[in-house]
Amino acid sequence: MVCLGKRCPCCGGKKMMSRGQNSWMERTSFASPLVCTECGQRLTSYGLCTISAEQRRHNRFLLPASFLLRIPGDKPQFARIKNISQGGISFDNLSCCLPAHKTLRVDIFNCNTGTGIEQLPVEIVSTPEKIQNETPVAAIQATKGARFLNLTQAQKKLLADCIQTNGKLEEIQPPEELISQ
Question: 18, 94, 117, 170: which one has the fewest Cβ atoms less than 10 Å from its Cβ?
Answer without folding.
Answer: 94
